[in-house]
Design a protein that fits this description.
alpha+beta, Lipocalin, 2 domains
Length: 144
């Protein structure tokens, strides 16, 4: 292996203090830019208006288990977040293509639901523990 005279000449005038100043300057630029990058990442995680925004009336119909009552419950959708519009705790969300996955809790009762929204309607399946009984069924939604 040979080293050219030009490469050796570049390092002949190496100044460590000058190199440290460049490193320090780069670190200052990175530190100044970091808050803007962190703020942009935070803004990206915040829910933004989406195609499914609004209040949805969801009708839960039992098909199996010792649950017989059909219930209609309102939900709010904003961006990718789904929340209760009428009581209870709702966790989960909705993707841009309309896929929904949520968990609903009211007192000791809970249910998990999956499905899809499209336009102003949607449908899916649910299962859970309602007043102590295992139940499952289907749900249908209409945007109001």
């Amino acid at each position: 292996m040979t080293i050219s005279a030009r490469a050796v000449a570049r390092f002949a005038h190496f100044n460590p203090s000058r190199a440290l100043r460049w490193i320090f300057a780069a670190a200052v630029v990175a530190a100044v830019a970091a808050p803007d990058i962190a703020a942009a990442a935070t803004r990206a995680r915040v829910a933004r208006p989406g195609a499914f925004d609004g209040t949805w009336n969801v009708t839960f119909t039992p098909q199996a288990g010792n649950c017989h009552a059909t219930n209609t419950v309102p939900f709010n959708v904003y961006g990718t977040q789904v929340s209760s519009a009428g009581g209870g705790r709702v966790t989960g969300g909705i993707s841009r293509n309309g896929s929904v996955a949520v968990r609903i809790q009211v007192g000791a009762s809970w249910a998990n639901g999956r499905g899809r929204l499209a336009g102003n309607a949607g449908a899916g399946r649910w299962s859970g523990l309602i007043t102590g009984d295992r139940c499952s069924g289907v749900w249908q939604a209409m945007r109001s």
